[in-house]
Design a protein that fits this description.
Length: 81
Amino acid sequence: MSYYVYVIRSLKDGRLYVGQTTNLKARLKRHNEGKVQSTKNKGPFEIEYFEKYETRGEAMKRERYLKSPKRESKETRVNKE
């Protein structure tokens, strides 16, 4: 099974959201249907960026890094690597 870390952008306000999933298409659909608490009423969304991992542990580590409260923005962290 593959795991994905993704960054989605709200087309409503331009904000970025980071998450992980095993099914990108289904997860984006859930975000756009307002079924994800953290992004409810903030959509529609589009996938801005994603990475594929072989283990959930690797995906979770990357997700934590992208969500970390460092001074640099999520966009900078994604584009850095």
